Amino acid sequence: MGEPRITMATREVLSAFLAKPAEEHYGLQVAEAAGLPGGTIYPILMRLERVGWLESRWEDIDPQTEGRPQRRYYRLSERGAQAATAALAKSARKQTFGLRPQGGAV
Amino acid sequence: MTGLVLGIVVVVGGLVCLAGVRLASRRQAKQLEVADLLWVAADRLREELGRSPTQEEVVAAAGFVRVHRSLRFWEEAVVPGRARLEARAAERKLMLALSFLPSEQRVRYWREWNAEMATLNPQDAAAFAFQILRSAPLMGLTLMFVKVFDRRAA
Predict the structure, then answer these.
(1) Which residues pair with A93 in a beta bridge?
(2) What is the DSSP string of B39-85?
(3) Is it the case that residue A56 has pLDDT exceeding 50?
(4) Given B113, B131, B142, which is nearest A46 (Cβ)?
């Protein structure tokens, strides 16, 4: 499995997951935590799920009782948690290097 | 010859007059629709709030002005017909977005996005559906990549 492209939005999503790594989140919750518009995070979730960093499952509720449909919940996989931490650290290092006033990457 | 020209002028003049009347009546109908919408919004807000709503509240509740979700305490007071129309438009956008995805993934994402939209008010659901539609080609490519090349999209 490859590594996903770490864009700014991907970084925000991963940070949101890493803030509560053991918890499950549904799409809008992730979007809110990441500070991104609700409908824009699905390509990211899709990519992260495809590379195995995220796991997802349907919410275990009775839609009739709850009065709303079942949500899809996402959580970081074990491998995902490690890889995401490493990827964020790497991306932060890159950013710091890029922002150096002198001698930084052009 | 002069008769023919005169005839054409009369016909064209008549058509222009008819078009003018039609446009005026359309404009009038539109104004009436807006007035109705504002009237219903004001009526519902009066019931909801137990006081006379301000002009800004009526205009926002009728859907003419976008206000932040935290300020929309009258969410249920939006005109029902308008809410229904917005919900149908959002549904159409969602269906269009699904057409970009591989067929075996459509049911899953339809369920997932519908579940998210069910908890949103009509305005936010419409925005959500629009954002989904905008990123649908990219999502379709991501999924297609896996399907065709049997490898993970980077």
Answers:
(1) none
(2) HHHHHHHHHHHSSPPPHHHHHHHTTSS---GGG-TTGGGS-HHHHHH
(3) yes
(4) B142
Cα dihedral A99, A38, B78, B60, rounded to 10, equals 10
Q: Which residues of B111-128 are buried (b: 16+ CB within 10 A; e: fewer)?
A: ebbebbbeebbbbbbbbb
The residue count for chain B: 154
Inter-chain contacts counted by CB atoms under 8 A, chains A and B: 72
d(CA A11, CA A87): 9
Task: Note whether A69 contacts B139, CB cutoff 8 Å.
Answer: no
CB B147 within 8 A of CB B105: no
User: Is the CB of A106 inside 8 Å of chain B's CB atoms?
Assistant: no
pTM here? 0.62
Report which DSSP code applies to B21.
Answer: H
Beta bridge partners of A57: A73
**Given an 8 Å threshold on Cβ–Cβ distance, is A37 in contact with B127?**
yes
Q: Smallest Cα–Cα separation from B127: which of B63, B80, B73?
A: B63
CB crowding B76-109: b at 16 or more within 10 Å, else e = ebbbeebbeebbeebeebbeebbebbeeebeeeb
Q: How far is A62 from chain B (nearest CA, A)?
A: 13
Task: State the pLDDT at residue B59.
Answer: 73
Q: Is ipTM strictly over 0.85?
A: no
Indicate the helix (H) or strand (E) that contains A86: helix A78-98
Q: Centre a 10 Å sphere on the Cβ of residue A13 and count the other Cβ atoms it contains.
A: 26
Mean pLDDT of B4-17: 79
In the structure, what pLDDT confidence band is assigned to residue B21 with cuts at 50, 70 and 90?
low
